[in-house]
Structures are given as structure tokens and as C-alpha cells.
Amino acid sequence: MVTAIAQPAQIDSSSTQPSTRNGMGAIVYDGGTTFRVWAKFASQVYVEGDFNNWSQTATPLASESNGYWSVDVSGAKPGHYYRYVLHNNEIFHRADPYGKHVIDPRDRTKAANDIGKVEIKAPFDWGEHHFTMPAWNELVIYELHVSSFNARKGNKLPGIFYNLIQASHANSGEEQLGTFTSIIEKLDYLKDLGVNAIELLPIFDFPSTTSLGYNPNLPFDIESSYGSPEDFKKFVMAAHDRGIAIILDVVYNHFDSGIYDRPFPSLWRFDGWHQGEYGGIYFYNDRRANTDFGPRPDFGRDEVRHFIRDNALMWLEEYQLDGWRFDSTVNIRNAKGNNNDPSNDIAEGWGLMQWINNDKNNKQPWKISIAEDLQNNEWITKDTRTAGAGFNSQWGSSFYWSIYNALASPLDNSRNIIDVQNAILQRFETDALKRVIYSENHDEVAEINHKKRLPNRIDENQADSFYAKKRSTLGAVFTLTSPGIPMIFQGQEFLEQGAWKDNVPLDWDNLSKYPGIYNLYRDLIHLRRNWYNNTCGLRGQHVHVHHVNDKDKVIAFHRWENGGFGDDVIVVVNLSNQSYDSYSIGFPQGGMWWVRFNSDWNGYSPDFENHPGYHTKAYPTHVGDPDHMPYRGNVGIGRYSALILSQ
After folding, report:
1. Which of 580, 566, 575 is nearest to 645 (CA)?
2. Of 133, 188, 264, 357, which one has the fewest beta carbons inside 10 Å?
3. DSSP H helical segments within 167-296, as ranges?
4. Cα gap 485→41, rounded to integer Å
5. Between the CA of residue 252 and those of 93, 226, 244, 299, 436, what are the distances in Å?
6. What Rg do the C-alpha atoms of the chain give, in angstroms?
7. Who contacts 153 (Cβ-Cβ below 8 Å, separation ≥6)?
8. End-to-end alpha-carbon separation of the chain, Å?
9. How far apart are CA 324 and CA 141, in angstroms?
10. Tell me: the pLDDT tens digits for 179-219?
11. How many helices (DSSP H) and strands (DSSP E) are in the chain?
12. 157-187 burial, b if ≥16 CB within 10 A, otherwise e?
């Protein structure tokens, strides 16, 4: 909000003393609140609020070094609202960039002149809340989008400026929006499924009716349509009570541009200063500002670096989250978003990621930091002591594409089993947990990216056909049995179909329509997590792809942690339309091997063929065994099916 300068009666701020308290934004103390803001080019800064009857001049802030301003205000307390008034040739009414509950135009209970007001928040009572993060080799991640996961009727969204909002997908889903509270209603469902981590798509405030979350506006402000900061903390507590970790998708490669005539508060030209067409103090003001998504923050400004670091650590400390997933790190480290383009590298972006990861690793090393870089760059997950970016893991795009290509093609002879083998074996350095693997994610199923769910891409005419169900569930088999941290996308477990949209809720009727597919995913997840103490190897680092039959499209691999009974696991996958009554493969140990999972069981779907995948006995082999294994046995396996066996 900007008003022309009218030379109001200004209070002399020279006698105002800067605060000696640490922190940014509104810092509550006994009897008052400290306000601190960075406005480098402002000539004067005031704070207006409930505590001074919204006077624009009664409460000046004192200038500190490097463009910071602060003041202690006695009587300002939690529940009060406030807003900054910045002078720089014009008067700018600005929301606090560190504000955690900002009024935007969609709040129908507020008036137009309330936009940008920020509520002072009281500390949250976590009680006796304690949570132990699952070991990373036990994680099974469920990627979840708040408003489309579990929608409720009657949550109509448009606010007082609805007609001005440049919204995507504004015409459908207005009365069906999920919230943090509605997710809590499904946490027991997720626990029963077996997932023990939720990766939330971004929850930063965004200037549209609905969003995937990748147009962040004010990163400290939680999107109001999802709920309040207190609602989010209650959700975190509820998830932790069920043994489920919360990982948050954070977006620092760009912020919302603010170039449209929107009434939303933003960081754009915050104190009025900017160069040319660019965005002011929070952004680069040269060609480095440009990304395909929005303006890039100025990673070279110390104040912006602290702003982003403070935000990242806030989620782990104040909100007690268990990790992050950094969106598009390639656009933090390179001005063109390219992997091998040194002329456009942004060294300060790389350094910022190192700094944040070092802070996390020094303070809370058990929490996980994941990068979405998608360039198969091992330096992303190398230790900062060897000049790496310091992430603990990164999304494994090469796994996805190799598996996708093997499943989506209608022709068996086009399935490349060598590529599947490489997908299973690929890792960064020597640690399998440095990659997150998946057969669906939000990007690869989103309508905005012209994508659809994997069953639709297998059979575009009938997503619940025999072939679509059979081959899409093989994607789950590879995801949950290969080395790495497995992740599934919401609804994948009950054959959600079509293109995912941010304003269209999951069709929960599919859970009763395809209960067997849900059971298949649950069984796989339980085996992955070694619920029955007979598939420990699926959590291990080790893999040996010992049988690669590209002619007949059959692959088998051995997984183990330490080896032995209850640890060694054999996975056999048939990617062809040919079933086998007796197919010979190698085994690491002799004796009886028990089938723990057969994806062709007709309990998973009535049209599955129940081809016998029998228990088998492995016998010593002779010199020259084709699988180079010490023992050999026969298995039965259906078409487009998988077996998991252990001792």
C-alpha cells in the first residue's frame, strides 16, 4: 500500500533509542514488544498498530547500522496488530517481512485498509511434546499438498478483493479446500498405510486463490487459507504423536514478483528503492534477478542471506519440523538454472546453502535436508568440508526417468532393462540414502506442467485397465525395494487418476473403489520398513543386480544390510506380457526362500491373475552360473508382476 507524501507531522526520532534485544520482526518481552525491520533506503520508519491507535507517526524506529531500524514499544502485546510505515519520497505501508500472520485480501472478516497488518504472536505451548526422527534408512515419505489432500465442503475462499486476484484455477474448487486441521483427520490413515514422514508442498503465503505453493510471497507468513501458525503447530504435534515426521518444501530460488496490480503485501520494492525494472533490496537488481518462476533474491546481500537463513531455521526450531526439501537448488546456484555453466554460477547462492546446511548439521544433525536439483550433481550432497553444498539427500531424477520409460511404453521390446538396472544401482558417492526415489511426484503429475498420473500415461484411455494397474504398481515396487529414500505422491496408493490440480481434491472414493491397490502399497511399505522382521535388507545400503534379462524383460536383485536370515532379500520383476511357471534365478544363500509379496495376487485387484509365486528352495550352483551367485532356484511369476522373497 502506497500513499503520496503529505508531510505529516513527524515526531523527531533522534531521541529514540534502538533496541538492545536480538531478533527480527516482532520480539515479545515482558511488558512490551521489540520491532526490528530492514529498510536500507528509508529516510524514516514508524510502526503503527493497536498499541498507538494506528498513528502513522507516534512510534518512530531508531536507525541502526546497515539499514536496520528498531524500537522497544511498551504495551505492545500478543494479539495486537501492527504495520510499518516507511518514508522514501513516498509513504509505504508495509507488512513485516518477518511477520507470521499477515492479513491479506482473502480474509473476508477484514476491511481493505487492514491489508498488510501483522498479528503479534504469543509463544506456543508445546507441553511435554517430544519426537524422535525416524532413522533415514527407515523413512517412507508421503508428498502432500494441503488444500487438495483432504478437502472440506464450505470453505469458500474468495475475499474482499477476489476480482483483483490474478488467480490460477480460480473457478473450481473454491468451496473445497483442505487445511492443516483436515489433514489431522487423515493422519491415522497415513499411519496405517505405513508412511512415517510427510513432505508438505510449500505453505508460504501466496498471492492467488489456490496454488501449488511455488509462488511464495512472504516466507515467514503461513498461507492463511491453510490455517494459522497455531493450527500448523497443532498439526505437527498430531503427526509426531503418530510417529510421523514433517518435512517442509521451502522455496528460496525466487519469490513472487509483485509486478501485477495486486493488493497483496510482498517484498517487492519494499522500501521504495529499485533499479530499473527490478525488485529492490530483497532481489538482485541485474540480470541475475531473472528466473522462469519469479525474481531471484539477492544472495549476495548479507541482510537477505540472514533473512533466508532465519526462515529455514525457524521451521526446524520454532515449528519443530524434521527437515526441509529445498526447491530448485539449481536456480539458487546458477543464474540460468544450468548444471554445467560456470559463467552463470552464483557463488553466493552456493555459499548460502552451505551456511544453512552447516547450521542445521551443527545444531540438529538428525534432521534431514533434501535438495531438488534434478541434475544428478553429486556435489549437492557432498560435505561442505570438501566444498559440497552439504545436503543430506537429493531427489533422484535419473531413477524416475529410467523407471518411467520402462513402464509407460506400450511395447515390451522398447523396455530397456539395462536402464532399469542402472536406476537401481545409481547413487551419489557411496551412500544410497543420498537420493530420494519415486515413480510419481507433484511435478510429474501436475496439469500445469501438462502431465498426468502414471496410470494415465500407461493407458491414456483407461487408467484403471489391467495394464495401467499392473505397470504403475511395478513403479511402486521399484521405489520401495531399491536403495534410497522412497517417496510416494498423495493418492498414488489408491490409483488417483488424471492430472493433479491444486484446486481439485483427491477422490477419496477411489479408496473404496480400489481397496486392493491400497493394500498393495501398504504391504510394500511394511516390507520396506521390516515390520515383520524378515526383510531387513530393504533398509540396507547394499544391492547386487545379479539377473538382467533384456530379451525377456526380467530383472532380479539382491538387497541386504548385514546379510543372513531375515536380512537377505531377493526382488524379481517381470516387465513383460509373458508369465513364467518356472523361471531360474540366482540366490545368495541355500535353503528355503519364502514369498513375502506377489503383486499378481488377485486380492490386490480382481483382474490380477494370481499366477503362483511359490516358495522355493535354492541349491548350490556349478562353476559358470549365469547370475554369478552361489545358489540357484526356480520361481513362478505372472506378467507385469513382482516377487519379494526372503529367508
Report:
1. 566
2. 188
3. 180-184, 187-193, 229-241
4. 46
5. 24, 20, 25, 10, 20
6. 27
7. 175, 176
8. 68
9. 12
10. 999 999 999 999 999 999 999 999 999 888 889 999 999 99
11. 14, 27
12. bebbeeeebebebbeebbebbbbbbbbbebb
454-466 pLDDT, tens per residue? Answer: 999 999 999 999 9
Sign of the dihedral defined by the CA atoms of residues 76, 80, 86, 90, in that order? negative
Own/partner long-range contacts of 578-581 (Cβ < 8 Å, ≥24 apart): 578/552, 578/639, 579/609, 579/611, 579/636, 579/637, 579/638, 579/639, 579/641, 580/554, 580/635, 580/636, 580/637, 581/612, 581/636
Q: Is-contact 647 594, C-beta < 8 A?
A: yes
CB 191 within 8 A of CB 242: yes
What nine digits make up the cell of 263? 493488493
Neighbour tally for 387: CB within 10 Å:
11
Residue 178's region, left for phi above 0, alpha for psi from -120 to 50, else beta, is beta
The C-alpha cell that represents 472 in the structure block: 504403475
Residue 201 CA to residue 487 CA, distance in Å, equals 13
What is the amino acid identity at position 269? R
Amino acid present at 197: A
Q: Is the dihedral of CA 317, 323, 325, 331 positive or negative?
A: positive
The torsion angles phi and psi of 536, rounded to 5 degrees, stand at -60, -30
Kindly tell me if the per-residue pLDDT of 4 is higher than 50. Answer: no
Look at residue 159 and tell me whether its pLDDT is greater than 70.
no
CB 276 within 8 A of CB 286: no
Q: Does an H or E element contain 356, and which?
A: helix 347-363
What lies within 8 Å, CB to CB, of 5 at 6+ separation is 87, 89, 90, 91
Using an 8 Å Cβ cutoff, are 227 and 276 in contact?
A: no
Query: What's residue 105's pLDDT?
Result: 76
